[in-house]
Design brief:
- The protein has 2 domains: about 110 residues, Phosphorylase Kinase, domain 1, CATH 3.30.200; about 120 residues, D-amino Acid Aminotransferase, Chain A, domain 1.
- It has about 250 residues and is α+β, with helices and mostly antiparallel strands.
- Helices cover about 30% and strands about 30% of the residues.
- Strands 8, 9, 10, 11, 12 and 13 form a 6-stranded antiparallel beta sheet that branches. A 5-stranded antiparallel beta sheet has the order 1-2-3-7-6.
- About 35% of the residues are buried.
- The longest helix has 24 residues.
- It contains 6 helices and 14 strands.
Amino acid sequence: MARRKKIYEGKAKILYEGPEPGTIVQYFKDDATAFNAEKKAVIDGKGVLNNRLSEFFMTGLQAVGIPTHFIKRLNMREQLCRQAEIVPLEVIVRNFAAGSMAKRLGLEEGTQLPRPIVEFSYKDDALGDPLVPEEYIAAFGWATQQELDEIVSTALRVNDFLAGVMHGVGIRLIDFKIEFGRVWENEYPRLVVADEISPDSCRLWDVETGAKLDKDVFRRDLGNLTDAYTEVARRLGVLPTNVTHTTKPTMIN
């Protein structure tokens, strides 16, 4: 499609104005970042894989009645989405201890939690996306209490869906983060799952071997990130046909 006005460029995606009012085009880049963008690389094929995988998860959520901003995939790297007012929170759901939680609490990575735990971080790269309690969210007006209740309920439903899908292909869902946005219908805001759902935003471990199939492969120099994402796509049956491995990751200074 014809290139339109750029609205925003983040670490992994670019947003353009859409062909109709109230829509945007979401473009998936091959860029990979870690440690608040201190580590960067270009990973050949990553954007294509994340586009396909996010389409798979978003349409799956819609099929079980969870609203998302996703409308349709346009091509190998672009999606058409509803424009949403993003709630400035990352919503993290944890099933097993890993990453920052394991460090904070001195838990061994992979320890199963007593129940899924929902955490919130304030979206601000300059601050390192700090964890915030619900009291902060309400006090600063980032979301109302009613919205928070809906966000938690929806996040747990997303967790049930993703965990079930992943278990069916031999992958353990360790944790994930999602974002929510408000879309306006008849002058009333409605919360939808926004941004993306992909191995960039999930921790995925092979059930049998414990091998990591997510961005920790890049964070911890555990191998080829495209290979890991390709394996997830292969198991889910959504493997793109034109992802190549001819280009090695290119580090960015």
